[in-house]
Amino acid sequence: MLISEPRALKLPLKLVTASRIATNPLSLLISLSSFCTKTLEQAKEEEKKKRKKEEETLNLFLHDIRRTMSTDLNDYKIIKEGEAEILMHAKNEVFYNKTQVNNRDISIAVLRTFISKRKQEHEAFLSKRTKGAQKVSENDASEMVVEELPHKTTPEDHKSNGECEVEEEISPEEPCSTMEGSVKITEECSTTEGPMDLKERKGKRELMPPRVLEALSASGLRALRYAREVEGIGQVVALDNDKVSVEACRRNIKFNGSVAVSKVESHLADARVYMLTHPKEFDVVDLDPYGSPSVFLDSAVQSVADGGMLMCTATDMAVLCGGNGEVCYSKYGSYPLRGKYCHEMALRIVLACIESHANRYKRYIVPVLSVQMDFYVRVFVRIYTSASSMKNTPLKLSYVYQCTGCDSFHLQPIGRTISKNTSVRYLPGYGPIVPQECSDCGKKFNMGGPIWSAPIHDQEWVASILSDVKSMKERYPAYDRISAVLTTISEELSDVPLFLSLHNLCATLKCTSPSAIIFRSAVINAGYRISGTHVNPLGLKSDAPMDVIWDIMRCWVKQHPVKAQPADQPGSIILAKEPVLQANFARAVASLSKAQAKKVARFLPNPERHWGPKLRAGRQITSKHVSLLGPAAINGALNQEDNEEPISS
Hints:
The protein is an alpha+beta fold. Helices cover about 40% and strands about 20% of the residues.
């Protein structure tokens, strides 16, 4: 039967003839096996030829680019980072900072995790939707059985070609597929399905690749790395309002070959206007300005799709850390305090500012990772739309009271809630949380904020990002640094805002410092939690109140006496009180974190000298920039300028 139907098998005529002639089934199997082997070999050969042709095409393409730019190539140098290469002009026309490799690497790691999580969330949504549809169909079926309506089946009930009549389910005018943001909704009708099956299949959604907007692209290096290194990414739009930068970006896109050309596009536009005119169109928006991002935040929170990601960098650390408090308030709406925790406070000020902008459009943020490294802060937040969830914002913000005499600080939440049965009532927070004078040293308080006092990391995300980074470490140029930062973040107490400095506590009391292990053990033995922080190697985060912290230090001073100090000094006032808690300095099991126990490097030195911020694009390099660039770079730039000067006759 099978041999007499060669069309069904789609076998070659020679093989069919041979199979008809062969009377032994074994010979037929041998013929089929040899045919399959030849087919596989042919497929492999075709694959090799195809790859070779693609490589030749790419090489010709790159050769073409280099040939057209041959007159100017001497003025450019090729910079390679990850899988992307860019051409940089020697005259500092377009901004590029090698130090930001850490920023770009950690952004790629977060973007990979975002794509993975987004897919999981979509599958969970589909699964939930399918279960709901099945329940509805079961209820409908039971209702049909109970009703027992008379129905007589006739040949006219079904079409002769097997198509099902479902006019009530899908109207002829309804399109087969629609687009909702990044999700494609498809409606299918199978010839073997009845109306019940159609209800289950109607509205199936296909997840589209995420669209990325790099609002301030400069050379386009970040956009090129996203396109070439992140699997499953969609279109990457690179913007800049500087003509020279856009030309450089387009040149670099071509220089990086067909993958970059197909995925990355560059536009000359004001990022604020572009984001405002493209609301909820991008799954990821990346802001990495030279300085403060405050002027871009209002339009950025509108441009991100629901559940999308906003990546934001702020490099104006002098402002955020309290150097110019009034400037910080005008830009971010918060007043900073100059404490040891100022860099973490900078992170929380930026988060509070983004939340404030999002709330104006009935949106709110969920931070997944917040990092302070090198000379900037970088936050990764997801943005959602919900008028009811937005009401919880006052519960996530707090003012900070910092004692001017000792290191004591206290947080005052802006809002509170009262729950009664199923209703929730939102009320102002109780206050003041502190008296006029510090209960520990008797000095006055400075007040700062409001800051984001809710968690700044999602530990599940941090674990996923760290696992992804470790699994492909050869693909991250700054692997050592970002893995060290992520390891430290993974061990932080995420629900404890700000931190203490053990050295500052000892400086207040004028005493010798206990080791971090001894101090940690005393806090743990008192029944509280304690951890390090990625912001400061000497910082300690703990949920112990300041009374307990000072009692531990009083017990330590009793064992290690100090010289007498003037009675009006904060340290003398603190030590004059007897400790309520008797500290136990016996070494606790959890006094060392897992990374510390395994001797994993957590705080690495800079890889080279002058590792920090660089000169703004377009500015002339002079001798006063030696602290930023180093003597070698300054001398090279000055020598080049001397060589370019025309010789007077």
